[in-house]
Fold this protein.
Amino acid sequence: MEPVISVEGLTKSYGPARGVFDLSFSVHGGEALGFLGANGAGKTVTMRLLMGFVRAHAGTARIFGLDCFDERPTIQRRVGYLPGELALPSDMTARAFLHMQASLRGLHDLKTMHALIDYFELNPSVRIRELSKGNKQKVGIVNAFMHAPDVLLLDEPTSGLDLLMQRRFADLVQESRSKGAAVLLSSHALGEVERLCDQALFVRQGRQTRFCDPAALDADAIVENLYGPEAARLAWNDFKTRRAS
């Protein structure tokens, strides 16, 4: 079976250690890949490349065999995208924004949208500028899921959500996977990736450092893969100093 998301040798440079470099991975339908890295590691750049917002300098990024940049209008109709930094129209109500997005997609059946609004206990009558960070995140989640997409690109998806809403979001991801959706979920939180993903791809300064079952790594290995061996050594020395004091 061909992968839904296929990335090979993907490179987009914004200068030394800024961007992504020679990145390769794939995600099949029904699978979820966790994309783990510190802030600035290249997770958001990769999401933007997959959405076709920017063109790669080298390598390929394909969804359903289509080039993510050249075929971006077709791809974007089949993708649910939740950016790490939401840019929502502040003067619109949540309802007006979601209806606008549905119209742009040609989505006429709004039952799923209304069900998601209720599921996340979102008041759609409030203007977006008056919503809390968590409620703005809910608007982004509803927008990403309401058209039952075949692919989900989720960048720090639970940012601002309380524990109950995080659990509901996790259940929603699992339901989407059970229906065949391919999921790429970027996070700096290992626990979230362990709960939601089959495999984890660690990136540091734009380069992949490890591909594995996220539950298979101990704390030292996690720190080393995210921040490098020197950071792991310093963390251990700091722990020993604190324990001795």
User: Anything to note?
Assistant: Strands lie at 5-13, 19-27, 32-36, 58-63, 66-67, 79-82, 151-155, 182-187, 199-204, 207-212.
